[in-house]
Amino acid sequence: MLVGTQPRRVAVIGGARIPFARSHGAYAKVGNQEMLTAALKAVVNKYALKGALLGDVVAGAVVKHSSQWNLTREALLDSGLDPHTPGLDMQRACGTSLEAAITVANKIALGQIEAGIAGGVDTASDPPVVFGRAYQQVLLRMHRAKSFGERAAAALSIRPRHFKPVFPGVREPRTGLSMGEHTEKMAREWEIPRAAQDELSLRSHQLAHRAWSEGFYADLVVPYLGLETDNNVRADTSLEKLAKLKPSFAQDGSLTAGNSTPLTDGAAAVLLASEDWARARGLPVLAYLTHGKVAAVDFVGGEGLLMAPTYAVARMLEDARLTLQDFDFYEIHEAFAAQVLCTLKAWESEKYCRDRLGLPRALGSIDRAKLNVKGGSVAVGHPFAATGARIVATLGKLLATRGSGRGLISVCTAGGMGVTAIMER
Fold first, then answer.
1. Residues recognised as catalytic
2. I want to staple 286 with a disulfide (CB 3.0 to 4.6 A). Which of 212, 304, 392, 400 is the partner?
3. Which residues are registered as beta bridge partners of 292?
4. Which percentage of the chain shows pLDDT scores above 90?
5. Is the pLDDT of residue 4 over 90?
6. Helix (H, G, I), strand (E, B) or coil at 28
7. DSSP structural state of residue 52
8. Which residues are within 8 A (CB) of 164 and not within 5 positions of it... i.e. 6 or more apart?
């Protein structure tokens, strides 16, 4: 539903987030709403948006309580924005806030809104722990009872087993396997050695530590609850230390706590706008969000759970009439070091690109010096729904600092999906 005569360019103004924290630590006593509010407030303060009416705020969380059904709207009401600003909850697993950014961007491009915020939040420290379905059914029988006798009969059927808590699922419902177990299968299929995974993880920590030391994140991260930096970054790690860690998902596996993302709490948000809106408020444009794509794989039928970005990127490159080598930065979400290496190897494979992606030739290799240059999720951490917004803000600053260029974003998700985007300056 285009408003006007032609689509408009979508400007990435910038973003802000709270430090990402290992779960059950610094943020153990707060939940999604508090953290998302903090990230939104950070954007509001950074860009002088106090009292501003925005077209939309789109955000979400992967793990949340049923009472948080209107999480984004509730968070923005405490953010300082005009309370007439609408809010939309969205969830596409680990791709949530990148999908949110694409959604806001599409509304701006079509002329439906002038500016909006995209974001995400997640916590493993405040999970929705509930009672099982059996107890739920007893309570519903009591609720529907027409007499005291019926109500008493239902109540008397309650047994101690009904009070066994049910924690959020960490396994794919269709396969019964965790994401780590699926990635172990991918690592075996693509013959990704443990040493290569550890090397990528070490590089991620080293680059993240350097970025923090050099002040790169100073204007992207605001202190929260006494934390000033991402507390998962390990400046003192080494290949020797990583090699000593035991496999986490299979006795003979290669994935460890050191080359996988940790459970993380945090929130991030990013401001997008039309060029006219940015110009009117005197806000410089960091970059432009030019393309986005989503794809899925048949992981139940045997494809790798986290391989969907290979499809999404291939289709997005076709849309943009670009090659995989036409980028100055590659921001590939590091759910696991193995998953990144599987993705890169797949793009280099003539057979995979021909048989799976329907391409005449391999997409080819990338210059790995351009990959996750300020550290990736293995080091920084991964609050599921917040990672996309973190990456968009990071890439925007990288492109602005460089002065020109192009960046590719790739995020794999649970459920065998992938969300990707292109940013340019």
1. 94, 382, 412
2. 400
3. 421
4. 95
5. no
6. coil
7. -
8. 131, 132
